[in-house]
Target: Zn(2)-C6 fungal-type domain-containing protein
Amino acid sequence: MLVVDQENLQDSNKKKRASKPKVRSGCITCKARRVKCDEGKPSCARCTSTNRQCEGYQPSTIIPQATRALLPKALSPGLAVEFSAEPQALEFFFLKTAPQLAGFFGEAFFQGSVLQRSLTEPAIRQAIGAIGFLHERTATGRLSKSKDVSFSDSNLHLRLYNRSIRSILKASSGPDKLSLVATASVLFACFEVFHGNRKTAETHIRSGISLLNSWRDKTKRIKGPWGRRYPSSESRFMETQVAPLLSLFNLNIMEPCNGGRAQFMLNPVSNGRLCLANKFEGLEETRNAFLDMLAAATGNSEIKCEKKRAADIKVFMLSSTGQSAMENWSASIDDMACRNSHSWGKKEQQSANALYLIKLSAQLSTIAYQAQTECHWDKYYEDYKELIRLCEVIVSDYEESGDDFSRTMNIDCGLIFALHAGAWKCRWPKLRQHSLDLLLRIPKREWFFESKHFHQIFTRIKEKEEEHMSLPLHSETDETSLPPEHVRIHNFMVEAQPNTFKGCPAYAVSFWSKPNGLDSPWHCSTEIMYLESTQAVEADIPFNLLGPKISMTLQH
Model:
């Protein structure tokens, strides 16, 4: 049985401090506390000595200028760039790619540690140059416009990527290079996500997890909850920056069955007990507790769930153990926000919005396994409103950046997953249409999925359900007129076809319903749809992320 131990780790009573001027330098934690920071990297001694989680450093406001003009000069001796387009690729990574990869919870790694290591480690510089060049190429669908980019540089991303791998292979034998190799594993996986190669990305994540597990076996594993106390800066870096990203990739790109997903947890596990804090101190700790719960739900973890490892998230989410864990986690979010929200700035509030969206999406996902009818989803009107509000806030923050590059890729917050509920299961017309509109405004890619594909499929589901309602042509749908049960689409399945139309690949999309009553056999109608992509890199075939995949053996 999965037992969540919430340890009551209380800091010593803190004396009230007099108000001090705003701290303009140092780590995020010290600035929030208004104390002087020693600016140690990757974590400052001020935080580690008081058992606080060092939230890392905000990127300097001079980074754009430094990247454009000073970065090649700042490299250590022997690290001069080898290709004419490489400085531009590095600049693109720091200005556009790193913020997208960082998302709400990865800033310390992508915009802090990676930047620092790129100035001294050729493997890291080559890896981020490869990612930056590939990102620009896939986002625009063309090569860089720079006149300095020669034909020989057209495959710069592959040349830099291969050189980085060779550099890492040479360095991997050194015991002091473990953090370097772990960093590279994450970056290589990012490269393959942009390249659309799921299998190769899986290989890098599996390698990174194996490396980190081996490192854990050789070092003293902390028994307390994630993010609290670590014996060294290397330990803190590996556990608070690298490990959460490996967990995130493991859960999102590795198949949960046939041994595909690695056994990997962030919080310690003792005798089948997941050790979480009684009170979460911050947003990252709260999010990472959820990642561990999700890892437990998919079964290939160290956690036992009701006498056996859960092979399906349904077993966990519908079990008393799973429901209790989710309720406790949800309550912990509210408690953490109540204690900390008064000190949050814009960045922290954005992260909190993402966390609340994760919470609400997880709660709605359980309905996919509980609901006996499609009309059951109509009970959650207020939840849909809140979900769409959170999505709107998050998307509006993306749009503030003012360019398409900032909405190319999302690996941090499951917007497509969340909008399954709003654009499909929510049949309230205005809310549903708002959700469909959001699918065209969110980042174009989420991991290996194309958001536009889901927009096309959910739009077609909406059309099919409304067609059977016998509404007058071009009439506005009454907000209170919801599709009856017998016309609702319960599930869909997509299969690739060999033909294309104007460059768009064809897919056979099957829609499953119960037109003759819930006790009748499934009815399936199949249509050929041409699903457009926004990038040259091929996306994964879309499927129902909200609930169980429909069986291929179901009778038409």
Q: What stands out?
A: The first strand starts at residue 3 and ends at 7.
